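Cont'd.
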Amino acid sequence: MSTYIVIDDTTGSIVNRILLNDPDQWEIPAGHSIVEETATPMSPGGTYIDGVYTPPPPMPVSTEIPQPSPEKIMLEDHELRLSDVETVLRDVKTRLTALEEKLAEGISST
Amino acid sequence: MAIDFPASPSVGQKYPVSPIAGVPTYTWDGEKWTTNVNAIVPILPGTIKVIKRSIWLVSGTYIPSAGLVYADFECVGAGGGAGGPNVAGGFSCGSGGGGSGAYSRKLCTAAQIGASQPVTVGAQGSGGGGGGDGITGGASSVGSLCIAYGGGGGGTTSPYYPGNGANGGQAGVGDICSTGMPGHPGAGGNASYILGTGGNGGSSIFGGSAPGFFSGGSVNGYNATGWGGGGGGGVGTAGAAGGGWGAQGVVYITEYCTQ
């Protein structure tokens, strides 16, 4: 059993894709011809002209890059703010350390 | 001729009011329209002695049995293949499932059939390769008397979005013509949060569609198992996979014979 495509001889359109044991045992519709499908699957709706298969138009798909969700934007904003707070804390800690050192120097000089 | 029954009928009301060649007369029984197909070609008691059934899984030529009075043709188109996903890094998406084949049924007289009729069995739609749509299933038919179209091929994914489900086979030719069931769309998105899911194939009148599934990897879709069922979508996670195949069509012929 093999797969054949049925082609409209006038337009080259593939009108069907059928299972067949022996082409001699099936009445080919008038104005049509059949070709055994070998490696490349061929779809009804495409064309087969001079041995060249052209598939039907592809289904529409979205190609835009998805934007981050509101939850992700909020999370990233929160992480950014947290980073700012950590920077301020590090700065405060540095100043405190410097003050402690000055205080220690003052105590030792008196 | 399109059947357009009148609204709010009374019990015993006939449709059509005036007989039309080749169209049975329906009667409203209070719940439903009923008909006796013998009205098309009267059958004398005891005339039908043998009922023969054949199931065609490959195309060929139907030659009526001796003594044929009626033949009841049932056709199911082939299922469409699912799309094959191809997805960008960081994303996990499933492709769309294939649509199922449509179903058509036609009761014919020996005179309508003649000496022979070509029987066509639709080939199953192949699943798409990574980044390709599925292939549409073939139509099944008995000449031009009864035709059932195949289901559409499911859609591939984009790099970031899942694929669309396919249409079921469109309504064909016969006394009863149902469309096929659409394939389901895939699902998915950012792989950090979501696993991709392939769409189910559409079920034919015999069921037999392929299931969808979710995965964190790149996995081929399942093939349909019952005549006319649509193939299941695959899943791509930062990669490609193949779509599941639809199932082939089928033709049933039930003969009512005098011998």
